[in-house]
Amino acid sequence: MTTVACDEEPAIASLSRRGATLESYRRRAVTAYVALVLVAALALAGFLLHEYRQTIADGWERVTGRAQLAAQWIEATFSLSDMALESLAELNQSSLLVLRSDVVDPDYERLEQLLAERRDRFRFLDELGLFDAEGRVVVTSSPLFPRGYDLGGLPHYRIFREQPALDEWVSGLYWSSFANDYRIMHVRRLAGEGVLNASFASIMLTPQVFEEALSRLEMSRGESLALFDSEARAVSHRPCLTTHDCLEIGETFLFPEGVGPADAVSGAQVRLRSPVDGVERLYALAPVEGRPYMAVAGEAVAVLLGGWWERLWVLVAGWLLVALLGAAVLRHYLTRLGLEEASRIAATAFEGQQGMVITDAAGRILRTNRAFSRITGYPEAEVVGRSPSLLASGQHDKAFYRQMWQRVEQTGSWEGEVWNRRRSGEVYPERLTISAVRDDQGRVTHYVGSFSDISQQKAAEEEARQLALFDPLTGLPNRRQLLDRLTALASESLPGDYHAALLLIDLDHFRRVNDLMGHQQGDQLLQRITHELRSQLRESDTLSRLGGDEFAVLLEELGPDQAHAAYIAERIASKLLGALQLALPGAPHALQMTASLGITLFRYREARSLEVLSQADMALQQAKRGGRNRFCFFDPLLQAKLHHRLRLEADLRHALSLGQFQPYFQPQVDSEGHILGAEVLLRWEHPERGMVSPAEFIPLAEENRQIIAIDRWVLETACRQLAAWAAQPETRELTLAVNLSVQHFHEADAVECIRDILVNTGAPPARLKLEVTEGFFLERQDEARQKMLALKALGVTFALDDFGTGFSSLSYLNRLPLDQLKIDQSFVRDVLEDPASASIVASTIGLAKSLDLEVIAEGVETTAQRDWLLSHGCRRFQGYLFGRPQPLGGFETSLRDARRALP
């Protein structure tokens, strides 16, 4: 036992020494191998770092040159604006317009047409014009701004008053309330006075012209170009793949801390991740010389480093290949270590983030990992030996699983999404991969399943779908989903002659609610309105929110009978209007919410989404014009009426310049039948339509502000006639009454304009009577009183027209310098039949006497009406009984006949 023991000790010691030597040799070999690999890696890293820095430097050089080139292109675009300003300066010296004091020279209209043609010929021009030293219009390309219209309060002209030495000014992005969009103003002070006496030439540019300029610059993948004004607001940005990765015009760009628009002068460079599309880029800033704009060029770092990454992977692959060859030399030393490492890696992979389950060929679970237990809630001990079917949610039928296993048998694997059930009973979605493991004979020995919980991914997808198709405030389908549903109706399985209806709902004066209660309360009200509307609709109806305070309801399956479909739509519309009459909670007064509603009926086969929506909108507008808090059905004649209105509006723009307006005169007489004067009434003789009713064209002129120029023409015509009559003894005592529009009266220079007309024409002010309505005094009553007093100081008199038809108030009758009340013809017409009208007329006559005002009755058509008015104290009349409105020649003939008939 002892000998044996003594013999074994040297052997064990020898083995131990050999093991130690072998281990030392193995360590030295591994150390040498690692050192060589590290040296190669360091050399490779140094080379790649140099390449990286060189690539970045080249990128900075390219992007800086790109920004400077873009700035030069923008400057070239501004040179076109300079040329247009030069042409306006030349136009100021033009002799096309000969100014005379007695007529409006038609050459002035030629100048307007010339500017309009020049505007329409150049896409970059939106509007252009000449202005005097105070910023008043001399001539423009826009019919919205008549000659003399005061724009001096705008910053375009205010800056020239603040800086007298300033000769030229280019604005940043400027919000134009007339264009309802961003514009760029380019204004130049004119040297000397031209024929037109203009001091400024002004051009309004559309920001889109710079987008077109930048679009001519070729761009490679990953590059971007943008133009910003001095306040970092976007003018143009490209490329734009979607609406989510592009800056809209006027949107402010968030520069990084320490970098701003002022750095464009020094050519700042910055590397950052774009807040617009999330792409990291190299950016260079370059100023547009002499203009408050800067160009920003960018190049995506990922694209810039694309070649560098390719070289990196090639070199790394080469380095790995060399390392693997070296590893092969050491393989016989590292076999056991490699096996252990492989075992460790396999164990790490098995215990990764994905759930893993291994079954035998019969489908019995052999092993699971920790991720399996974390996702499903089942510990491994509870599932070993059982079938994976214990996870089934019941949401897939047998056919689904049969196809799954057929796929595994045919291809060896299956991948897809399934719904499984956790141990807690919760159903969840997962991404599952099943792989079959086969032996050397191709027989299946095991199945390996790996899966991941995709609940968060599904939730994100659902949230994106909700944002794309639903209104975030109310949860209702949005405009896009409504249009999709309208388009889908044409392909429904129901017969094509089935009817549907679209109802557009617009809340009346909802902006006042926001102003009164705040936007938060306004949002809560919209949610409450959504609830009320839903409660009145059927299950098959679709309620949508189109935006703001506008809702839509799609009524489907209304049957083939149009009358029945209209009846159902009308009933539902009535219920909706009733439900919307809500008392607003928290309001200081009992404020009620109402709505206007437009309805259009259509057949399934005729479901053209945009056309149907347009028809419902026309019906909605008709409901609003009808007084709101009501509904209207779409009338096909509405389209023709709208077309007629647009044509009439276009003709109205040129009616004054073409001399199509004529003044008509209707006599005003006293109780003895003596003609005291006349009311000047405007008539439009259209070359194709004939006489156009004032009730048709006057509202149009008020909407587009042409009424101001028309009013001044009528006033000037009337004053010239008064001056002519004043030179003749038989007509010098005649007066002329002229209607004055509210818009004209509230112009800042209204008093000065009327004073100038009186001075230039030589008309006696005391013979001019301005007829005003109660609308003058509903707002800005103090301003109206001051202007009337100023005109009264000149000798002009005032008559209150249509008294009693509006919001009559005795308070302003006592405060305002009125001379005459005019009884509206609607009361005079019924004075003999309607006791209420008779009472109103009698009260008005009595009121006028108590206020020491003259009273005149219009619309007197019969002797009985005149006699009744005489008996109640009215001594002045106007109406068909005494003469119809007629041109000047006819009126003067009637005047001579009346004078000859007198004793």
Topology:
Blueprint: H1 2-92, H2 106-121, E1 125-131, E2 137-140, H3 155-162, E3 168-176, E4 181-189, E5 200-205, H4 208-215, E6 223-229, E7 234-238, E8 269-273, E9 280-287, E10 293-300, H5 301-304, H6 306-329, H7 331-350, E11 355-360, E12 365-368, H8 370-376, H9 380-383, H10 398-411, E13 413-421, E14 427-438, E15 444-453, H11 455-469, H12 479-489, E16 499-507, H13 510-517, H14 519-535, E17 542-547, E18 550-555, H15 562-580, E19 582-583, E20 592-593, E21 595-603, H16 609-625, E22 631-633, H17 636-655, E23 661-670, E24 675-686, E25 690-692, H18 694-703, H19 707-726, E26 735-739, H20 742-745, H21 750-761, E27 768-772, H22 781-794, E28 797-803, H23 810-815, E29 820-823, H24 825-829, H25 835-850, E30 854-858, H26 863-871, E31 876-878, H27 888-901
Parallel strand pairs: 21-22, 24-26, 26-27, 27-28, 28-29, 29-30, 30-31
Antiparallel strand pairs: 1-2, 1-5, 3-4, 4-5, 6-7, 6-10, 8-9, 9-10, 11-12, 11-15, 13-14, 14-15, 16-18, 16-21, 17-18, 19-20, 23-24, 23-31, 24-25
Helix pairs in contact: 1-4, 1-6, 12-16, 13-14, 19-21, 21-22
Domain PAS: 356-387
Domain GGDEF: 498-636
Domain EAL: 645-899
